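#dry-run=false #mode=assembly
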Amino acid sequence: MNTEPDPEPEALDPAPGSRAARGSSSALATVITVYDKGPLIVRGPFTLQSDDQQEIDPHRDVVALCRCGRSRVKPFCDGTHALGAGRS
Amino acid sequence: MGLPAPRGPLSQDLFAVLRGRPGPAALALGELVGTVDAAANLGDGGDARTCEDTQIALFACYGLHYDGFEDVDAGWEWNPHLLAVRTTLEARFERDLLTSAGEAAPQLSGGAPLARFLLDAASPAHESALGTYVHRQATLEQFRELVIHRSIYNLREGDQHTWAIPRIGGRAKSALVAIQADEYGGGVPGRMHAELFGYTMRELDLDPTYGAYVERIPAISIAILNLMSLFGLHRRWRGALLGNLAVTEIGSSIANRRYSEGLARLGASDRARWFYDEHIEADAVHEQLAAHDMCGSFAAEHPEELNTVILGAQATLDLRRLFATTVTDAWNRGTTSLRAGTPA
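#status=ok
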């Protein structure tokens, strides 16, 4: 009979297959890239949340975050930065 | 779908042969090769990009490499006699694409300048008159026309660029795969962009069956799809296919927002607007990946093919302008931009 105690539950481990679980492999670091005259692109595991800790669904694995402040779908980019100043 | 109706002597002969078995009937195609120019009126002055006979014939040739046609034996796909006809048609199409695109091609070197060139060339700051028209004044009937034009491509959105995946590598391939994953709805059934377009059609009381409106769709709209198949099915055009995808994604967020707002103005449902709304966020990611990571990396690795990326982008933008002008000219005259036939 196995008298070993059950292994400590790894309460902080995220569900298998979740974004965060994939991040547990060091090969999958989160990378944020600043694009020339464009948005910030986030690749790898991340959680996006509002200032009241509500999770924001990114809808896709790779996201573009607004850097110009003019997007109508913030925090995401909607391409508005490419329009001349004053147009949106 | 079945083969569409022929639109001239060339497609008439070609489709008659395609309805037979790919054995002895193939020989009749040998004669057809020699008569393409005369049959489709593509000698001096004829533009293959807007030639109904040429584009519907190419559509049939390329269709065999996708889902095919109910009335055409699948054995035709790699039939050398048919490929000879297709090659002759493609030579005319390429001639007219490059005549227009080659004139304005800039001399660039390096991935970053290429990315900047693409972002500028397809910038939403140069909005077409068609985009403004749809946003502000198109009627529901006109919006439905636009959806019909695009249905030949959007109901199969993504498939044409998938041809590039096995033909490129490294960072460019990773970027392309990230874009394509979104196009195919991240693997979630019912979320493929092609399916979202089907929902738009249904909401607008249109039939989302592929090819349902092909008879009403003019050459210029079919040429936009054929261009992608041409680039997709020839490895020598792989750079052009990437350029085509890049300028399709760049500026698309803004264009789709305008379409969505146009539909809202017309009182369309949220479900009808879903396709356009999805592209607002998705394409803001895709345009960066396509310009920098895909085209930029590809050109850095294959500098000898950088010019092909530019040609692909220019040819695409030229066709798109031609399409936009054709449609707005018709609407400004108060007529339909579709071919004559049963009302949609």
